[in-house]
Design goal:
Length: 131
Amino acid sequence: MKFLIATFIFLASFQLNAQISGELLTGTWNCYHKELEDGTTSGTDFMGQEFEYSCDGLTLELRDNGIGTESQGGLEFQFAVQDSLIQLGNRIYVIELLNKQELVLLDYDPEQMKLSVYRQKFRKETDERKQ
C-alpha cells in the first residue's frame, strides 16, 4: 500500500512539474544574445575579418500543442521536453535557464562532435511588447 501511495505522489508531482515547464515554455521567444559555450562572442572568418555572433531576428513561437515555428525560414516543427533537454524539430538543446522572462539554450553535443557549440539567450515577448 505504501508503494502505491508513493508511486501516485511521484507521478502526480512529475505531471505537475511537466505542466509548469510547458506553461513557462509556451509563448514567443526573441533571441537577443549568441555566444560559444565558453562565452566567446566573436570569431574570425576565412578572410581574417572579425565578426560578432548574432541571432538577430530569430524568434521561436512555442504553442501548447507541441508545435513551434522559427522566424528565420518560417520552419514549423514539433518540440518536446525531457528532463533538461528540449528537442526543437531535429535539433536538441540543453535548457540552462527557464523562467517567465528568459530562456537560455545550449547546443546538446554529448559526443563532442560539433566544431562550435552555441548558447542562445531568449526573452519572452509579453503582450505589452506586441503593442
